Amino acid sequence: MADEGAANDRNAEHDRAPSQVDIEFVDSLPGDQVVMPLVEDTGVVLLVVKGEIAPQAGAELVAGLNHLVCSGLWPPR
Length: 77
Prior knowledge:
2 helices; alpha+beta; 77 residues
């Protein structure tokens, strides 16, 4: 029955929602970086230092990346 468990694990991964991209504004990042991706189980969070990108530009970037990911045009990993 171990094979059945492995098949169920693969099916659970396949049924999972597509990975998402999100943005979070932070006060600072290490090493003078202004953008840093943070990979999580559900997708990628782009950490951006406040004031380095306009909120509207960030929202449009995230929307475009999510479209690519959800359409299967760009695998996030």
